[in-house]
Design brief:
It is built from eight helices and four strands, in the order ααβαβααβαβαα. By secondary structure, the protein is mainly alpha-helical. The chain has one domain: Recoverin, domain 1, CATH 1.10.238. Strands 1-4 form a two-stranded antiparallel ribbon. It has a two-stranded antiparallel sheet with strand order 2-3. α2 packs across α7.
């Protein structure tokens, strides 16, 4: 069911990307915190396992409970397309990768974010996770020649 929960994981960034060739994601800690606030739908300061489904539900265009690669990438445009390709491979983490992100992948990915393995992802864990994702994939989301700041 599609609701007005249109805060995709990168909604804030995708919105900008419509008008810009270049997206500045630094400082990463602020970007990560921004993503957290857009993903903590009930605003309780925790990113619950169910909220991972909420984040992705609008990508599931044909409502079969899993996100196909093309469904995910359909929502992403340059300059974040290459980054999104990598992100989808990260999300499709349950072996073997099958080109779909479903609950098995979500379970595993959620455990990956849950640094202290207490079954709940708090804002620190979420931010820590996304900072390393942003750092590790810098080449995919940053142009080789960043614009010169005045
Ligand atoms: Ca929450
Ligand atoms: Ca999968
Ligand atoms: Ca935790």
């Amino acid at each position: 069911m599609v609701t007005m929960k249109s805060c995709f994981l990168f909604a804030c960034i995708i919105g900008l990307s419509l008008a810009q060739d270049y997206i500045e994601l630094r400082p990463y800690n602020l970007t990560a915190l921004n993503i957290f606030h857009n993903s903590d739908f009930n605003g309780n300061g925790q990113f619950e396992r169910s909220e991972l489904n909420d984040v992705f539900q609008n990508y599931d265009v044909n409502h079969d409970g899993r996100i196909a690669r093309h469904e995910y990438l359909h929502f992403v445009s340059q300059p974040l397309y290459n980054f999104a390709v990598i992100l989808f491979e990260d999300y499709d983490c349950a072996p073997p990768p099958d080109g779909f992100v479903d609950d098995v992948d979500f379970d595993l990915y959620y455990k990956l974010m849950d640094g202290n393995q207490d079954g709940m992802v708090d804002s620190d864990e979420f931010v820590h996770h996304w900072i390393s994702v942003l750092e590790n994939n810098e080449a995919a989301h940053s142009p080789s020649q960043p614009p010169v700041m005045p």
